[in-house]
Amino acid sequence: MSRDLMHSDEVKALVRAAYRHVPPTTAAVAHKIYSSDELAMLPDSAVNRALGVANHLRYADIRPGETILDLGCGGGIDTILAAQRTGPTGKVIALDFLPEMLDRTADAVREAGLTNVELVEGEMEAIPCPDASVDLIISNGVINLSARKARVMAECARVLRPGGRLCVSDLTVDQDHLPPEIATQPAAWAGCVAGALAEDGFLHKLERAGFEDAEVVERAPFSIDDCALYPLFSDEVIRLMRALIPVDRHARVAVTVVVKAHLRDVGEIRSESGAVRSEAAASTCQSGVTRNVRRLQDIAPGPADIPGVEVRHLTQVEDPQLKIIDVQPGNSTPFHTHPHAHEAVIISGVGTLQLQEREEALTPGDVLFVNPDEPHAIISRGSEALRFVCLDCYVG
Ligand SMILES: C[S@@+](CC[C@H](N)C(=O)[O-])C[C@H]1O[C@@H](n2cnc3c(N)ncnc32)[C@H](O)[C@@H]1O
């Protein structure tokens, strides 16, 4: 089983289970990452629960008064350092999906004597904060834990103000170097290794989400001994790593990176009502809000009726002709016709519209149009499924 085949719900459940009861035994992690001056500013409760992988705060250029979002705050170590730097005129929104972690951050924040931290329960894949409401996003060893990293980055782009910054620490891995026996271990995912991206994949996803100038400003090797500092890795997984990874790679099973980027400033974005996006974001983040955006499979279940082609009827939409179709890479719909004019909007992937005597390229945002009774097929040619919303057609 590769990481791509794991369902995101399973990943989320295993990460929750792993972090819910993680013991406060990781002071060694804090001493590895933070300077003695930084450690002196922190309560022991936060130091003992450090679970990050690097020190991005050194590069974050935090200014007084800024609103900072800490994705996956854990025991609160970076939240506290960031809150001290932004000062009483700014604030840190500490986001975590585990109430247990938020309780730990709350205790540490109280011990640090801070009043500018807002605790928010929620998922980084659906950040419960308004659009364009944050100046800086920080995160330490968290993005790799998501099975939906592109979605996390899109959410980061949504909640940042135009021109806002992202400065995060994470692990990167060459997945080809990870033996499958390790890549498939839940403990290796929870330990930030099995779910990690390659460095260029991380930067590429950020750029696709609307960030620019994404760069790695610090890199350091992450060894098996480093893994053993985190209680997420069981002794069994550490033993497997030592046995299965070639000895010359034991000192570098992954690489910690500090990544910086800023959100492209597209100027004022006006909604249909004419309101400026940042004005619409006047309210604050809310724990446990119900989101308006959901996963496709939750609202549009549907079995494939053609190999390589998946048709999803939108069960909550009355028009039975409105459906979403995924054509898997290298597959095609049959050559077919409709008795009516047919229109579809390409959402993702790349491919071609094959007509009788010519073909036309399809990329996201294209709207294809086919005349009544005109034979055509839709072919997926990229590395991901070609997904389109079919406004009035059937397949097969
Ligand atoms: C590796 S720990 C890092 C904690 C903290 N950033 C630090 O440096 O010590 C990961 C944290 O992210 C949280 N987390 C994992 N997946 C999450 C998600 N999808 N949404 C929100 N929080 C998540 C976990 O509960 C945990 O507290």
Keywords summarizing the entry:
396 residues, alpha/beta, Rossmann fold, Jelly Rolls, 2 domains, globular, binds S-adenosylmethionine
Beta-strand content = 15-25%
Which geometry do the CA atoms define?
Answer: globular
Q: Could you spell the SSE succession in H and E letters? A: HHHHEHEHEEHEHHHEHHEHHEEEEEEEE
Structural class: alpha/beta
Which architecture of the largest domain would the CATH scheme give at its second level?
3-Layer(aba) Sandwich
Give the strand order, joined by hyphens, for the main sheet.
3-2-1-4-5-7-6
**Can you tell me the residue ranges where pLDDT is under 50 for at least 5 consecutive residues?**
1-5, 267-282
Distinct small molecules bound, one entry per kind: S-adenosylmethionine
Q: What percent of residues adopt helix (DSSP H or I)?
A: 25-40%
The total count of strands amounts to 15
CATH superfamily heading of the largest domain? Vaccinia Virus protein VP39
End-to-end Cα distance, whole Å, is 32 Å
What top-tier CATH class of the largest domain fits best? Alpha Beta
The fold-level CATH name of the largest domain is Rossmann fold
- Strand count, sense and closure of the main sheet? 7 strands, mixed
How many separate helices?
14
